[in-house]
Amino acid sequence: MPSQRDGNYMNVDSDSDISLLGDGDGDYHLRGKNKGKGKAVDKKKKDKGKSKAKDQAYTWEASYTRSWDTVQEDEAGSLQGAVEDWIARGRRRRLLAPAAAIRRTIIRHLILLLDLSTSMMDRDMRPTRFDLTLEYAREFITEWFDQNPLGQIGVVGMRAGIGERIGEMSGNPQDVLKSIADRHRLEPTGEPSLQNAVDMARSSMSHLPTHSSREILVIFGSLTTCDPGNIHDTLDACVKNKIRISVVALAAEMKICRELCDKTGGQFGVALNEGHFKDLLFELVPPPAQRAMTRAAGSGATNPAADLMMMGFPTRLPDTSPASLCVCHSEMKSEGFLCPRCMAKVCDVPTDCDICGLMIVSSPHLARSYHHLFPVKPYDAIGSLADTPDAGLACHACARIFPTTALTSTSTEGMSPLNRYRCPECHNDFCGDCDVFVHDVVHCCPGCGK
């Protein structure tokens, strides 16, 4: 019987976890549970090569590992040029937007469809598509309610082949944000069903009045959809009910998603990266323009006459008022709002009275919704003071003194080298910061009030 270790022979028990490694020259080395001993030279080289490959970033990770390259300093070491480019892009976007009054729907109802399938766990968008979608959805809901205070949002999820109602349609942004706050409750699983989710969203908006808009926003990350029937029948029902569907795709363009948007008048876009994903999402914050009705045979008007709708402005109760039951939650509260028609008490506005059905709004909410109908015209960039001899010395809004010489030698499209912008209506001059603040926040010119 040969010995346990005789030359190149070694008796190894069959159920042992020790394996043989040969280096090609007849020398064998033991590899057991003690991984620090007995490794072959070529194995070390392979491990060294693997560790070196792990240190190198993937191609799709380059934008994250060197994210500081996206903001470049100028010759003087300042970041002012990068900031001006960002402001210039916003100004060019405002210049391309229609400045004339457009008929829009200020009372909006939106259903947010979230893809909760396993494809949302892909890491092509960091940290994952799912986490990034939840983060952008929270920002979108906050901005949407800020720009559309009279609107309502509901949330529906797509996972495991069904449509799941995550949040009821509500006009309170805190309730909508609370419905998507628990990440573990929304854990992705299974395949999405576009037809089931759209049907659920359509049925939840069937009772809405005709003067309000019906919109569906789909954030879709999968390349497949598991539908129980013909999705084109659902599409025809959405067209009949005048529901506008918009899709933001995270993977690639699908023909059915494109048809959903084209036939209903919505917007479709494929996110190229995280920044583009957010841009596509926030383009849907302003209310869409109302589509003209199809011209009927023998009729001259393309749109029906505008109908008046009844609204009520409630009376706000102070905190020191005696506690009473509210009709929305049946809880004893001191503060609240009284319906002007039936004197019922509600907690928040805007809302619909649960007793008489009157739409209760506050005057600031109604006034803020009107800025979409009458947008502030883009200010003209002043290139030199030779054409404007009567120019003021300071900004009309913040009283900051304008520079007398050009701030930059290079001219950027849409930017004024003198940091001076003039309102085409009142001909008052504003600085760059006030220009951005007026068009993005105030939505009203301080000089002319338009």
Automatic annotation (TrEMBL):
Keyword Metal-binding: yes
Protein name as annotated: General transcription and DNA repair factor IIH
Function: Component of the general transcription and DNA repair factor IIH (TFIIH) core complex, which is involved in general and transcription-coupled nucleotide excision repair (NER) of damaged DNA and, when complexed to TFIIK, in RNA transcription by RNA polymerase II.
Pfam family, one: Ssl1
Organism: Serpula lacrymans var. lacrymans (strain S7.3) (Dry rot fungus)
Presence of the UniProt keyword Zinc in the record: yes
Chain intervals with Basic residues compositional bias: 31-49
GO cellular component: transcription factor TFIIH core complex; transcription factor TFIIH holo complex
